[in-house]
Every structure is written in structure tokens, then in C-alpha cells.
């Protein structure tokens, strides 16, 4: 088990990563499609200039690179922000002819590319083709004064893609701030004096919402094309509230850095949150990104101060004796969780603390989860009902239930 370059730069260690994201030992040599970890998550947004400010001021991220008209990219602006080992790239159209405009008109703000770092792009593409995947970009190289990266891309659900990024070519690692076409950029933004160094250290998982009846197809896609394994929390049955239902299964890469729960709606009395997402995103896409922290109380307090809004959980959740008996002892008194509406779940391996934001943009689509793991490799199965009921209350307010 070794650290990725991004983890080393973020001064994380393997023990922390086992705790933060449930990293496990595995044999990459026997993997037909070895994946090192996340490379960057690319968002298309309506106004990248302003979104870049929001991710710095509210989410404590650091601006590290930029691409735009000033350095020859006349199509769009792109801001690369970092927190711990994860990078977000925010893209917004500059040219009235930019293809990003049609994408944004159709989907609103959202994730277009879940880029993965791989040690060997060509090996992955050969495997992807053999398994029948749609290759969107054949392997190609990009170079600048910092070196060379080798890239390719395959299609996943909806209009989402996985760009595969090989950062070491011919034994030399690319030394630039992101990829060729980007220049290093810092910001004049200054954090509040009391603000922590960062609010999250890593990305834990990204959930994909797919259409009714398509979940198993996408599970099979990740199994066959990318050699992902099914995780223990593999819930085939409907997860139902009184009104709505969905199904969810989880796949992960060999070392478990990259985990993809996949949801599909299920037939129920009313429209599920997945239906609402599919309507407003006009098709499948990334539903939520789970940001890993080692201090969820502090992270939630800081985000709340900055105006980030979380889903509400009724007090009854915390006062339920069954819940108290099930979760047992956690690192903080339950009152601390109750005052912040943080959810808690326990399984045979340990427990986790989690909370969900309201949608990040104008449409009821993509949102974030904050997660603090203590041994549990799950996704909060025990909280699904409470979470969905909370989402339904919001859906109802929007007139979408
Ligand atoms: Fe999640």
C-alpha cells in the first residue's frame, strides 16, 4: 500500500487514509484496470469565477491552477481548487460558442468528469474496449514545460465521463500544477484567522443516480470494464419511506479509494428523490460527493458559519432508544451530534458520522456529504430512511414530491 502523490503533498499518511476513506491492501498486478485513485472532479457551472470564490470562502479550498483566455484558452475559464488530496476543477463558458453552454443549459451545475489517476492509460483502454465500453478519447499526450501526461476518456452514466490520467510517462512524473494548458495560480483570498487549515482531507465516494432498471447494468459496467468489486454494503432491496423508494448498490476500485454507490428509483406512492434528480438534471449524473473529514463537528461548525445549509433531522431521531442502543458509544456525546443534526450509523466494523448539505446550486441535483469514518466501511445504510424523509420534506417544499 503506497500513498499517492496528492496524498503525500497533502501530508496524509496511510493510517489516516485507512481511517478517513477505508483504504485497503490489494494486488494491482492482477487488476485488469488498475486505478490509483481520484485525479480531479470536474464541474461545469454557470459562473466559474464566482463558484471559485465560494469554494474558497465557504469550503476552505485553495486555488492552485487556472486556465482561461489570459493563457490561450478562449473557450472557457477553469479554476482548480484543492483540499487535502482532492482537486475540483470548475469550468464556466467564456465564448458564446462554447460547448459548455449547451451542457449547462441542459444539466445546470454538475459533475461532468470523474477523472481517475491510473498508472497505465493504454492498459486500461485496452481492457475497456475488450469489455465493450465506449471510448470517448483514445490515448493521447499533452506536454508543456513541466512535462507530459498521457490521457484517455471513457463514457459512464448519462453525459458523465471518466478521464484517465497517467501522470508518469517514460519514468518522469508531470510536475505542473494540474495538466498542460493550466498555469499555477494562487488567490488573494485570505481565510479568517480562526479558520482551520482545511475542512476536508479527501474524497470518499461519489454517488451516481441512474434511470429505473439501470442500476444493475452500471454495477456490471464497473465490474466488467473497470474490475471494480462489489462492496459489503450492497443493498438490493428497496429502501423505502412511506412515500418513495430507491435501490442502491456500491462498487469500489481495488484499493477502495474510489467508491461509487449507484442508485435507481423504485416504484412507490410518490416521486422519489432520484426521480426528482433525473428530471432536473435531465438524465443520470453524479448525485453527491462525500468529503472525508477527521473532525466533522468542526467542519460542520465552520461551514455553518459560512452559510452552508444542511438537511434537517428531527430530534426524534436522536431520542429514539433503539438508535441509542444500536450506535452505542461514539467519540462525542450524542447531544453534540443532535445540536448539529449529524447522523450516526454503526456496523460490524465500526461506526461513521455523516451529514448532507442541501443542493449546491439552483437545481435540486448535486449536493455534498460530510463523512467521518471510525472503522465502518459502510455508507450509512441505517440512516437511509431518516435521510430520505428529510429530503422528502425539502422535495415537498419545492413542489416536487
Ligand atoms: Fe454517501
UniProtKB/TrEMBL annotation:
One of its GO terms (biological process) is L-tyrosine catabolic process. GO terms for molecular function: 4-hydroxyphenylpyruvate dioxygenase activity; metal ion binding. It holds the Pfam family Glyoxalase. The keyword Iron applies. Its EC number is 1.13.11.27. InterPro entries: 4OHPhenylPyrv_dOase, 4OHPhenylPyrv_dOase_C, 4OHPhenylPyrv_dOase_N, Glyas_Bleomycin-R_OHBP_Dase, Glyas_Fos-R_dOase_dom, VOC_core. Keywords: Dioxygenase, Iron, Metal-binding, Oxidoreductase, Pyruvate, Repeat. Fe cation binds at residues 205, 288, 369. The keyword Cell cycle does not apply. Residues 37-167, 202-358 form the VOC domain. Binds 1 Fe cation per subunit. Its cofactor is Fe cation. Coiled coil: none annotated. Belongs to the 4HPPD family. This is 4-hydroxyphenylpyruvate dioxygenase. It comes from Nostocoides australiense Ben110.
Amino acid at each position: 500500500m503506497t500513498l499517492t502523490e496528492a496524498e503525500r503533498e497533502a501530508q496524509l499518511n496511510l493510517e489516516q487514509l485507512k481511517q478517513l476513506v477505508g483504504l485497503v491492501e490489494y494486488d494491482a498486478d492482477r487488476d485488469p484496470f488498475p486505478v490509483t485513485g481520484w485525479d480531479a472532479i470536474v464541474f461545469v457551472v454557470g459562473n466559474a469565477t464566482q463558484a471559485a470564490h465560494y469554494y474558497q470562502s465557504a469550503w476552505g479550498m485553495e486555488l492552485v491552477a487556472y486556465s482561461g483566455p489570459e493563457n490561450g484558452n478562449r473557450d472557457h475559464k477553469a479554476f482548480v481548487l484543492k483540499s487535502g488530496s482532492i482537486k475540483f476543477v470548475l469550468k464556466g463558458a467564456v465564448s458564446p460558442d462554447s460547448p459548455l453552454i449547451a451542457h449547462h443549459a441542459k444539466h445546470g451545475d454538475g459533475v461532468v468528469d470523474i477523472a481517475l489517476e491510473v498508472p497505465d492509460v493504454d492498459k486500461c483502454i485496452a481492457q475497456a474496449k475488450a469489455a465493450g465500453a465506449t471510448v470517448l478519447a483514445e490515448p493521447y499526450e499533452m506536454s508543456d514545460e513541466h512535462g507530459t501526461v498521457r490521457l484517455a476518456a471513457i463514457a459512464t452514466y448519462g453525459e458523465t465521463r471518466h478521464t484517465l490520467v497517467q501522470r508518469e510517462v517514460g519514468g518522469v512524473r508531470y510536475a505542473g500544477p494540474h495538466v498542460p494548458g493550466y498555469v499555477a495560480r494562487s488567490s488573494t483570498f485570505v481565510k479568517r484567522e480562526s479558520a482551520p487549515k482545511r475542512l476536508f482531507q479527501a474524497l470518499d465516494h461519489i454517488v451516481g443516480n441512474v434511470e429505473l432498471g439501470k442500476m444493475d447494468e452500471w454495477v456490471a459496467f464497473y465490474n466488467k470494464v473497470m474490475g471494480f468489486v462489489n462492496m459489503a454494503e450492497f443493498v438490493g432491496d428497496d429502501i423505502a419511506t412511506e412515500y418513495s423508494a430507491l435501490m442502491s448498490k456500491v462498487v469500489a476500485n481495488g484499493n477502495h479509494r474510489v467508491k461509487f454507490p449507484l442508485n435507481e428509483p423504485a416504484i412507490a406512492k410518490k416521486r422519489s428523490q432520484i426521480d426528482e434528480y433525473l428530471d432536473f438534471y435531465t438524465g443520470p449524473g453524479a448525485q453527491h460527493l462525500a468529503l472525508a473529514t477527521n473532525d466533522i463537528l468542526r467542519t460542520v461548525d465552520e461551514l455553518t458559519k459560512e452559510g452552508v445549509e444542511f438537511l434537517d433531522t428531527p430530534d426524534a431521531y436522536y431520542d429514539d432508544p433503539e438508535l441509542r442502543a444500536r450506535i452505542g458509544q461514539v467519540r462525542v456525546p450524542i447531544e453534540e451530534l443532535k445540536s448539529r443534526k449529524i447522523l450516526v450509523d454503526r456496523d460490524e466494523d465500526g461506526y461513521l458520522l455523516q451529514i448532507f448539505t442541501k443542493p449546491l446550486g439552483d437545481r435540486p441535483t448535486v449536493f455534498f456529504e460530510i463523512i467521518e469514518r471510525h472503522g465502518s466501511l459502510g455508507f450509512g445504510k441505517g440512516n437511509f430512511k431518516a435521510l430520505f424523509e428529510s429530503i422528502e420534506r425539502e422535495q415537498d417544499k419545492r413542489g416536487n414530491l
